[in-house]
UniProtKB/TrEMBL annotation:
Protein name per Swiss-Prot or TrEMBL: Kiwa anti-phage protein KwaB-like domain-containing protein
InterPro entries per the UniProt record, alphabetical: KwaB-like
Source domain of life: Bacteria
Length: 309
C-alpha cells in the first residue's frame, strides 16, 4: 500500500513532535462534529516515546485493507479510507497552529479530553497519530484516585496529576489518507456511525427497497441504533441485491436449501418478522454461501469475488 510505504520511508529521527489533546466530538449527532484542541509542551523523552509508538505501529502492519462497513482488521493489518470521506478535516483545522491561545497552562485543560494525538512534522510532511483516551483522563476518575509510587523500599503518595498514554495509536492521518488500527475508536472519534445512520435513512427512502417487503417496520426496529446492524444495512444498500430481480427470485426459490426460513407473500414480497430479520440481513448481504468442494453451507463476512483465470 503506497501510503504505508510512504510513511515508513520518512526520517523520524529528524522530526518535530507536538502533543495535542482534543475534546469532542460535540454538537448534535445529526450534524458535523465539533472539536476543540489544546497543545502542550513535552519533554524529549515523551517525544521519543510518541515517535517510537508510531514507528512500532507501522512495523506491525503487514496488510492494508480498504475500509468497509463490515471489514475488520487484526493486529497485523490496517484499514484504509480517504480523509475526505470522514470528518478528519475538522480535527486537522483545529490543530493547524501552535498558537499561545491554544497552549495548555493548567491541568484542568487536559482533563476530560476525548483523545490525544502526536503531530509529527518531517520536512514538508505532517503525520497525525490519534488515540482515544481512557477513563484516567476523566475528572471524576482523577478525583477518586490517589497515585502512589514505590521508592527506597516504601510506598509514597504522588500528588502530581497523572495521565496515561497507550503503546499504540488508533488511527494515523497522512496526506489524504487514514490508516485505521482500531476501527471502533476511529468510528467513535470521527462520528463515522452517524454517516451510517444517514445512509440507512437514505436506504429507507428507496422505493425499490420498500418494494421488496410487505412492511419494513420489523427490519427498522431490528436495526435500530445498533452499530453492527447499521453497518450491515449500509452494506445491503451498497450491494443493492434487492434491486436485482434475478437475485430476489433465486432467494425465493433457494432460500430453504440454504437454511433460511424467510416467508414471502403471494406477490413475492418478503414478510419480515422479528425472528426472521437476522436471516433477511444475511440473505440480502449474500453472506450464506455453499462450498463447491465439501458442499457445506457457511456464513461468511468477506464476499469479495475471486477472479478465476
Amino acid at each position: 500500500m503506497p501510503v504505508l510505504e510512504d510513511i515508513r520511508a520518512l526520517d523520524f529521527d529528524n522530526s518535530q513532535v507536538t502533543f495535542w489533546t482534543i475534546k469532542g466530538p460535540n454538537g448534535l449527532a445529526s450534524e458535523a462534529p465539533k472539536y476543540s484542541g489544546k497543545w502542550v509542551e513535552t519533554t524529549d523523552q515523551l517525544d521519543a516515546f510518541l515517535k517510537t509508538t508510531l514507528v512500532e505501529d507501522l512495523l506491525r502492519i503487514e496488510e492494508v485493507l480498504d475500509y468497509g462497513l463490515l471489514t475488520q482488521n487484526n493486529e497485523a493489518s490496517a484499514l484504509h479510507i480517504p480523509t475526505d470521506e470522514t470528518y478528519a478535516h475538522k480535527i486537522l483545522v483545529e490543530i493547524q497552529a501552535e498558537i499561545s491561545e491554544k497552549k495548555v497552562t493548567k491541568v484542568k485543560q487536559l482533563l476530560n479530553s476525548s483523545l490525544y494525538l502526536a503531530k509529527i512534522i518531517i520536512e514538508d510532511d505532517v503525520i497525525i497519530a490519534v488515540r482515544k483516551t481512557d477513563s484516567r483522563w476523566r475528572t471524576k476518575k482523577a478525583a477518586n484516585l490517589k497515585n502512589i509510587y514505590f521508592s527506597d523500599e516504601q510506598l509514597a503518595i504522588d500528588n502530581c496529576p497523572h495521565f496515561e498514554l497507550s503503546k499504540t495509536f488508533d488511527f494515523i492521518i497522512f496526506r489524504g489518507d487514514i490508516l485505521i488500527l482500531n476501527k471502533g475508536a476511529f468510528e467513535s472519534v470521527l462520528r463515522h456511525k452517524q454517516a451510517q445512520k444517514d445512509d440507512f435513512a437514505e436506504l429507507l427512502q428507496e422505493e425499490e427497497f420498500h418494494a421488496a417487503f410487505v412492511d419494513v417496520a420489523p427490519l427498522v426496529n431490528y436495526i435500530g441504533d445498533n452499530k453492527i446492524q447499521l453497518r450491515r444495512a449500509c452494506a445491503i444498500r451498497m450491494k443493492g441485491h434487492y434491486r436485482d430481480a434475478d437475485f430476489m427470485e433465486r432467494l425465493r426459490v433457494n432460500q430453504a436449501e440454504y437454511g433460511f426460513n424467510i416467508h414471502f407473500d403471494v406477490n413475492g414480497k418478503i414478510i419480515a418478522t422479528e425472528e426472521s430479520c437476522p436471516q433477511i440481513m444475511k440473505a440480502l448481504l449474500d453472506h450464506r454461501l455453499k462450498s463447491g468442494f465439501s458442499t457445506h453451507i457457511y456464513d461468511v463476512q468477506d464476499t469479495t469475488p475471486v477472479l478465476v483465470r
